Fold this protein.
Amino acid sequence: MLVALAVAGFGGCNHAASTADKSAPPLVPSVAYAGTRVPWRTVLRQPAEWYGSDDARGLAVNVVGYQTEAGGWPKNLDMTIPPAQADRSADPGETLSNIDNDATYTQMVFLARVISAHDDPYLRAAFNRGLDYLLAAQYPNGGWPQYFPLRPGYYTRVTFNDNAMINTLTVLRDAANGQTPYAFVDAARRAQAAAAVAKGIQCILRSQILVNGQPAVWCAQYDEHTLTPAPARAYELASFSGQESVGITRFLMEVPHPSPAIIAAVQGAVAWFKSAQLTGAQVQALGGRVGNPNAVMWARFYDLDTMKPFFCGRDGVKKSNLQEIEAERRNGYAWFGTWPATLLNTDYPAWEQRLAAAKTPPPS
């Protein structure tokens, strides 16, 4: 099996300049934060009317308090807790702007919904700083690192892991289109966001792994200079990704008027998902635990040479059976899942129908 990358014209780590107006006087919030009963993990799952409440507006002020000087937000923090009371001792990364673990993406979507319900210059300025941050963080090749400013280590990789880059592109795409809740975004930033999305899509297409000359799926992260598959943590080796590739494929399917290259990328990914699916019995033979031996599942990682599932502990050594790695990693990571199931069974057929309808001439 021949595995290759479609890479052209990549390299360098220069970032775009931010459009933030650093000379503008600081704004002040129009409402104080007085605590909220909404858990942070559910902040994007509230009824639409809640985002116009004093509770939501107050929480938004709290969120702005966590925004870093760079313009993004740190990860793994409960932002219903006032910033002065937050415990950031566990990881120095929890003080730095990044797009890992839904950071920055979550805060920007939340702020946009609150602004859309009740416009506030203070919150709008914070959102704009966040948007400028995302624009500045993009590599010339169209990808995004986990952390910006860059944090040494695997954090500089172009990161699809945990949907980091796709979440970023989704915010920029929706802001560029001015769709709800982003109608307040100014024209200049919309244009910049649209250009960033176009570059991001080209990065996706060029990083798609080719198998025997045909597009397959993606690795969870890529070298930022060469755009070749790269490892992250010791147990996250370069591979075909059975999870992250789903979000990438779905994002391409959401392009309104897909080019032939996008259509080929989606079709290639879907064909790969079908070829890589496992039965519950196969998962059990690989050391996984499933209730239904007839269930259809996928592995998180597939070897780039053999396309066989593999597992890895903190020693960084590939294992062919999940039970061969230490219990902490065996039980602390999602090694199998049904991630592509809805994509294959529902989303892809609907996408094919949309393509067919677009090609059908109107009745005379």
